[in-house]
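Researcher: Please translate sequence to structure tokens.
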Amino acid sequence: MATGSSDPSNPTRAAGGEYLRFLVWAVGLAVVLAGIGYVPTRSLAGERGVAAMLAGCAVGLFASLLGGVPVYLARAGAAGNPGGAAGTGSSGGRVETAALGGMAVRFAVALGLGLAAVLTGWFARGPLLVWAAVSYVVLLVIDTRYALGRL
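Model: Translation complete:
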């Protein structure tokens, strides 16, 4: 069970608080990741590489934030309907299914944005793809913890 800003008297608000906490963690981790990668990327790829690193981190971050939306919607819906769908007797399966849907959304957004960024030619291809992949994998930890309700 999640702790912190969860409000048992208002489950929809609690789901919103959990998503807000997820957003803060994801943005914070992306900023830390970009800070850690700045010096090595600049020394290996120059200023153009730094811009590509920031774009790659933004791709991973945006994919992560959108990937959390199905879980939020499932939690908010389950809060409004604690009995679950007709005949199921529980709302537990809804969140697990939403977590799988969130992974699909996350992958599709990362693939689409990464491909679009590469095809524009505005960024150095190597650093962009490396940092999109690194941020995708690192932010997966936050996404998983959010989906499990342990963030």
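Researcher: Any highlights?
Model: The mean pLDDT is 80.
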